[in-house]
Specification:
Helices cover 62% and strands 13% of the residues. The protein is α/β, with parallel strands linked by helices and 341 residues long. The longest helix is centred in the middle third of the chain and has 32 residues, at 126-157.
Length: 341
């Protein structure tokens, strides 16, 4: 029983300490860090990810160098020392963002292997801390996304929003089913060659006419690109382009003259005296129209006095009758004229 108990204790010690081989000889190596990053004794030491030992202790070194504040004592299997070159570098790693931290030795390229009680150069732990901080921010983002997703699911379950109403309202579901049915009928009509789209898909003549129209459009575009026709000349003919530029320049010159008050139109726009004269003329015209509307003067009486209008109409009628008689029987009027003489 005593032997069995000792064996059980040995197995427990083996499991608790994480030793891969309790009979393997070990050697001590050191590395110095600026911060331990919560690295604990008993954590694994790996060479390019392969287990080679464990951390025997993490302690303050007493050094004034900020990059050598913490000393990490590593117990490494002695037979693994030959695989660790002297230019290898140690850094803190973790199984995941929040996992157990360990020392990972990145194998160097030197042909000289490290000796027992040697020092392994360390990498800055700030990169690891930055990775951890990024991991925390990523977790916060994931948590926020999960909270929003949970809120969306809650609203859907409560029947809010389009999806929620679709799941809870029978009327919306029926309308959706009806819409799908209509789309299915439309698809069947198109497939059977009915309607414009169906004929376009199945009627060879309509398809040929469409292709011919597209071909003609391509020919027109080709003619334009080659400079044929009015549009083509407008795009290709430099003379027409120069004339258009000259016309635009002339228009700009005229606009400049107008803004400068040159010419009749320019003076009309800029000359205050001409503006006042036009205003006075418009005022006089307005006064004259008002007098006409009031029946003042001959023209005013003609517009508002019906008796004058009727007299003028009668005189015009008599004059027309006289002219008609003269044309019909001019001798009659000539006799009268001769009798008088």
């Amino acid at each position: 029983m005593a032997i069995a108990a000792m064996a059980i204790v040995a197995v427990l010690i083996f499991l608790l300490t994480g030793e891969r081989n309790i009979f393997a000889r070990s050697a001590t190596l050191y590395t110095y860090l600026s911060d331990s990053a919560a690295l604990a004794s008993g954590a694994a030491v790996r060479l390019n990810g392969i287990y080679v030992g464990k951390i025997a202790g993490v302690e303050l070194s007493g050094s004034a160098d900020p990059n050598r504040v913490v000393r990490v004592v590593m117990s490494v299997q002695r037979d693994k020392l030959a695989a660790i070159p002297v230019d290898s570098e140690a850094s803190i790693s973790a199984e995941n963002v929040l996992g157990t931290k360990y020392i990972n030795i990145k194998k160097g390229k030197s042909a000289v292997a490290i000796r027992p009680d040697g020092e392994v150069k360390s990498l800055d732990v700030q990169e690891f801390e930055e990775l951890v901080r990024k991991g925390y921010s990523t977790l916060d983002s994931v948590n926020a996304t999960l909270r929003r997703f949970d809120n969306i699911v809650s609203q859907v379950e409560a029947g809010k929003g389009t999806i929620g109403k679709l799941l809870t309202e029978e009327e919306l579901y029926d309308r959706l089913v009806s819409t799908v049915s209509e789309v299915h009928k439309m698809t069947q009509m198109v497939s059977s060659g009915k309607g414009t789209l169906g004929r376009l898909l199945h009627d060879e003549a309509l398809y040929d006419r469409t292709v011919a129209s597209i071909q003609r459009l391509e020919n027109v575009i080709a003619d334009v690109q080659q400079g044929q026709g009015t549009a083509g000349k407008l795009l290709r003919d430099p003379t027409l382009y120069d004339e258009a530029r000259a016309a635009i320049a002339e228009f700009r010159r005229v606009a400049t003259d107008l803004n400068a008050g040159k010419g009749t139109a320019g003076k009309l726009l800029k000359d205050e005296a001409a503006y006042r004269q036009i205003q006075s003329l418009l005022a006089k015209l307005d006064t004259m129209v008002a007098r006409l509307n009031a029946g003042q003067g001959t023209m005013g009486q003609l517009l508002v006095n019906p008796q004058l209008y009727e007299s003028l109409t009668g005189a015009t009628t008599e004059l027309r009758t006289l002219v008609k008689d003269v044309r019909a029987n001019p001798k009659k009027f000539l006799r009268i004229k001769l009798g008088l003489f």
